[in-house]
Amino acid sequence: MPLEHQLASVLVTAPDIPTDRMIFDGIPMERTVQVVKKGVKMERVVQAGPVFTTKQVASIFFGMTDFWLRWRERDGGTVLDGVKVEPARTAAHARRYNLSDIERLSHALVSNEAISIESHIKALRVLAAIGRVHGLVV
To answer: How far is CA 17 from CA 55, 80, 108, 128, in A?
Structure first.
C-alpha cells in the first residue's frame, strides 16, 4: 500500500517519497571549509551539493523553459505557504537554486497548479537521487 504524503496542501502518493517531511528538511545546504591563500588560513562557505541555474531547473526538473519558470515567478506560482521561494543570487544577480530550493519550488508549483502531481513526483525523485549521489540523503 503506498504511503500518503501531504505538504503544501497537495496529496502525493508515492512509496519512495517521505510522508512526514520534505526530503532536505534539516540538511544544511552550505558548509564551511578551510582554505589556505598565500599562506593564510581562511574559512569559506561553499554549497554542500550542486547548484542549478534557472534554465537548468526548468529543463531538468520540470521539462520546461527558463522563460516559463520566470513567468511562474512573476504570476505568483512560486509561493509556498504564503512565502515566495527565493533562491540565492550571484554577485551578478543570477539565480542559483540548491536542492532544497528546488524541492520547495516543486511543492509551490504543484500547490499553485502550475505542474501536475506526476511532474511533482518526478522532480522529487530526481532531487532524491541527486541528494543520494552527493551524500546528503540516504
So the answer is: 25, 19, 17, 8
The domain ranges of the chain are 49-138
What is the CATH architecture assignment of 49-138?
A: Orthogonal Bundle (1.10)
The model carries a pTM of 0.81
For the chain, 138 residues long, give each residue's pLDDT as a single digit of tens.
Answer: 343 444 444 555 566 777 667 888 888 887 778 888 888 888 877 777 899 999 999 999 999 999 999 999 999 999 998 999 999 998 899 999 999 999 999 999 999 999 999 999 999 999 999 998 988 887
52: its cell numbers: 542549478
Q: Note the helical H segments in the chain.
A: 54-56, 62, 66-74, 99-111, 117-133
